[in-house]
Write the structure tokens for this entry.
Amino acid sequence: MILTSSMTGIASPDPLQHAFKVKSAPHAGRSGSRPIKVDEQLWQQWWQTETTADKRALYIHIPFCRKRCSFCNFFENGAKPERISHYMEVLCQQLTLASQTKLAQSQPFDTVYVGGGTPTDITAEEIAKLGQAIQRFPLADNAEVTLEGRLNGFDDAKFNNALDNGFNRFSFGVQSFDTAVRKAAGRFDDKETLLKRLQQLSQHPSASIVIDLIFGLPGQTMDIWQQDIQAAIDCGAHGVDLYQLIGLAGNRIDKASEKGKVLGTETSEFQADSQTRASMYAYGANALESQQWQRLSSCHWRRDDRERSVYNSLAKSGIEILPFGAGGGGSIHGHGMMNARDLSEWHQAQVVTEDAELSSQTRLPAQVPGMALSPNPSAAFDAIFKRGLDSGTLSFDGMETDVVIHLQPLFEAWQQNGLATIDDTCLKLTLAGRFWNVNMQTGLFEYLAKNPMNAEAQLAS
């Protein structure tokens, strides 16, 4: 039996701060997939075949931003109105074509997520048209339909058009309420403006208003973070995500660091180390839960049950997610899909020769440049662990007894290192375990790779 510290963490008087050295990635996973070539015949077959998935989602990508934030390495295209308008027109056409296919119509969609980029940078009229295109798909009763973006520029016309055309959840990247930290990060608006707008939006009787906060931003001290948490509680938002700043290569913070600089505020170059970020997470989790906020995952809490976080929860379960737009990712019939980001290539793929014998009812959405992967044979098995560890409770009911026995040495090591507790029915993460849950997921997949078991034993009961 092979056990390493990268799997188990290390013994420490303070596992929250020292169980692992650092969190180096936002997600964990392993893949038994390989790139495949999707020819025109296979592409047509996919869209003309009914799904076998029980749960489904749509992911729609809007790859435009007015400004590049210091922590982001995903900036794709500047938000020029004419460029956005052309993109949205073609995107809605593609959504309409897709919605009419046998694949789309064969099973309702439980959730829709419009991400980016900054989707709220599109106009009110474009939000309405996008919502109408989404409504052409068969949606489950009470389906969650999320529009992601920023508060700056999200006026009442955009909010009302979104509500009138099926959107019922709004996720805003606040990151920090502190005006100086926000300025250093490349964000718009000051604290007072954000609080006022969030309090207005949160008065809606049914829409879910969710905000993201990042801990570990340059210039963001523990005192500022504590004020950020209090502002999140006071602003009226129905849900909040607490994300640790991850030093992804290519962002402005990373490039400044390579030159020995810190993109701090005008008065502070403070940059939280891993131990301070752990303390920030603990403070945020404890503060929210002391105010009776319910934890839905290791990084997401809700004030009341209107916030469900359906997309984020189901996406960790390996569901089918049909992707649309340049840079959109998902899966079709178990095949992982990632559309290429290049906007000109995406538009070129939409240029379809008109055929007089081919009606719009039988046309398929364009096949755009990107990567397709073969089905991952361990996807359903791995999803059990990703979903369980992310939620904080890994139930043994969904696993064969042999699997639990095989993993017992790892589980016991986690318990010894203060990351989890075990009983006969489940493994529960401690506060430290929830902070390090991505490292633990990565460690579990490393454990399975170095201590393989029979493939048939890996099937969920």
Summary: Residues 353-361, 456-461 have pLDDT under 50 and may be disordered. The domain at 35-315 is CATH 3.20.20.70 (TIM Barrel). The first helix runs from residue 5 to 8.
